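Hi support team,

I submitted a single chain yesterday and got back a structure, but I'm not sure I'm reading the token output correctly. Could someone confirm the output below corresponds to the sequence I sent? I've pasted both exactly as they appear in my results page.

Thanks,
R.
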Amino acid sequence: MILEAFNLCGKVALVTGALRGLGQGAALALAEAGADVALLDYVNPAETKAAIEALGRRAIVIEQDLIAATAKELAATVDTVVADLGRIDILVNNAGIIRRAPLLEHTAQDWDDVLAINLDAVFHLSQAASRYFTRQSSGKIINIASMLSFQGGIFVPGYAASKHAVAGITKAFANELAAKGINTNAIAPGYMATDNTAPIRADAAREKSILERIPAGRWGTPEDLKGAFVFLASAASDYLNGAIIPVDGGWLVR
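Hi R., thanks for writing in. Yes, this is the structure output for that exact sequence:
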């Protein structure tokens, strides 16, 4: 039956940026579908852990600063997931930051920090997880792209560069890994009501202009992405490789 293809019982996922927002939503969605989940964030995502355990699933916490983490440390993080939960089947590269400043005022530190979390950590964690995925001839990498994987944005050159790159490496990974039974795809959320968009939502004129362009007529929420996360993590997406799936209320087609 088709619904069984979405069942994640017996699977183990690692979700980065699991404290709140889209990462918390992803972790809960995967747990609701049956997966055990390792939660990575720079502070303890205790609320997310408790919610997953309330569903009867296992959850572990990994406190790690992705700005400072080295490739070796990120590989060790994946090893920890396998040691504590027995395996790894799904990697959700959700963690991301945004620094807003005009180009001429955009600091080198802001550029470096954004690329470290939004791109470097994605590469290193995907590489480490793929070593396990290759051995078991199965695995799911789910990257978080953005509307700014397609557009340039305003005052966010580092973020736009990182999200264009995430779309690119999603396709590059798919080319190499698909034949090994590993699926690499990305979700491109539209304008979501999260901490990252709080400054935009606080600007009445900017918020109005955004809402006028969204055919659905509202900001998205983490709940709106749950179905996409479960689909990409499950056997239902076994023939999907290198896709960048917009979940945007119609923003891109307006």
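A quick pointer for reading it: DSSP finds eight helices and seven strands in the chain. Let us know if anything else looks off.

Best,
Support desk
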